């Protein structure tokens, strides 16, 4: 009965197991700095599930990785909205992390992403 009741109260796509066992970095995160550059106004964000980037928003388009692929398909297919957007100076900084496989570490209220020679700091995205 507990599982039936909690199933109704869970966020869409979540399971009780995920809420209990998920890594602490799972959820939505907004970029604050990348390589020391303040990028808050650019609107960059990531979604993480089971410790892996599953989607991102580049301030203009939203993208997600589809892991449910037929056999013979690439490892992960990227599906994005197709709004025409002007390129911005910090897009290259953001792309390193959105398309890469950064190391992740939760440090207090921040998520620290690192790639060789690069570092980003993120905060939890609010559910407004």
How would you portray this structure in words?
By secondary structure, this protein is an alpha+beta fold. It has helices spanning 2-9, 16-21, 91-98; strands at residues 27-34, 37-38, 44-49, 52-58, 62-66, 77-80, 103-107, 110-115, 118-124. Strands 1, 2, 3, 4, 5, 6, 7, 8 and 9 form a nine-stranded antiparallel sheet that branches. A hairpin with a 2-residue loop joins strand 8 and strand 9. It is globular, with a radius of gyration of 16 Å. It starts with a helix and ends with a strand.
- Beta fraction of the residues? 35-45%
The main pleated sheet reads as: 9 strands, antiparallel
Specify the helix fraction band.
Answer: 10-25%
The total count of helices amounts to 3
- Mean pLDDT across all residues, rounded? 82
Distance between the termini: 31 Å
């Amino acid at each position: 009965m507990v599982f039936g009741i909690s199933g109704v109260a869970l966020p869409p796509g979540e399971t009780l197991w995920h809420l209990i066992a998920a890594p602490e970095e799972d959820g939505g995160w907004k970029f604050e700095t990348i390589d020391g550059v303040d990028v808050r106004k650019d609107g960059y964000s990531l979604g993480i599930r089971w410790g892996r980037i599953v989607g991102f928003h580049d301030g203009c388009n939203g993208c997600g990785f589809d892991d449910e692929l037929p056999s013979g398909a690439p490892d992960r297919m990227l599906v994005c909205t197709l709004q025409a957007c002007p390129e911005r100076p910090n897009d290259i900084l953001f792309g390193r992390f959105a398309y890469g496989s950064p190391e992740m570490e939760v440090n207090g209220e921040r998520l620290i992403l690192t790639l060789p020679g690069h570092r980003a700091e993120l905060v939890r995205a609010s559910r407004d």
